[in-house]
Amino acid sequence: MTKPFRSGRRATEATASSRRAQAFSEALPFNLTQHARMRMDGRRISEEALEAVLAYGRKVWARGAQIHALGKKEVRWGAGHGLDLRPFAGLQVVCTPDGIILTAYRNHDFHHLRKTT
Length: 117
What we know:
Blueprint: H1 9-26, H2 34-42, H3 47-56, E1 58-62, E2 65-70, H4 72-80, E3 91-95, E4 101-106
Antiparallel strand pairs: 1-2, 2-3, 3-4
């Protein structure tokens, strides 16, 4: 008699995470890679946070990608215009030149971002 196949816990968790990421991305009006979907889900970066960074964050070109970053300067600007951007401070979104979102992460160190013309 053979034992029925039992999937491991890790496979189940990975599948559930993938399903959540797919459901999350289907509701977004952005073009996200699978990597970006998984990272946003894992890092608990919301649609609202993504919209805030893309709308109000600084845009710089670095290493062949466009990076949208929301820092202290943008938070101060937002406060002066009646926007509370504090929860999104330090959030960075990496996009291709075509506007496809590659990944999103939190990093308060903006040293690697340099202004370009």
